[in-house]
Structure formats: structure tokens, C-alpha cells
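re: ur question from earlier - yeah i can do the single chain one, its not a big deal. heres the input i used so u can compare w yours
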Amino acid sequence: MNAITLKGEKVYIKQPEVNEFGGEIMQDGVAINNKIGQRALLNFGFKHTETTEEAFVVEMSKEKFSEMYN
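and the output i got, formated as C-alpha cells:
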């Protein structure tokens, strides 16, 4: 179990044994004005793929997620 500090408190996060998400690509559209959310996903390892009128779109492959977090 991994721990992170969030607002001064230690929070424990149970890591999955295996990569269980379906599909091959995780994709998320973040609101254009949500700069903090965009930066958080980029820092987590997502790649910016496009920007539309409504969203800043990021994605991560199942393979990359598995390499980084399993």
C-alpha cells in the first residue's frame, strides 16, 4: 500500500494487483478553463492529444499505464 500526503494528512492508496481497466486507451476531456486539472493529468502521465472548443483532451495507453503503475 502506498501513501501520499494530502492537505497535511497521510492517505493510503491500495494499488491494484493487475491493470484492470477495459480498452486500450484512457481518454479524458478536461474543461478548457480547468488549468489545474489539465496540469494534474499531464503530471500523472497523460499526453495532450487535442484541444476542442469545449475540452483539453488527454490520453494514456493501457501499456504506458501498466509500465508506470504496475
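Residues 10 and 48 are 30 Å apart (CA to CA). not sure if urs matches, ping me
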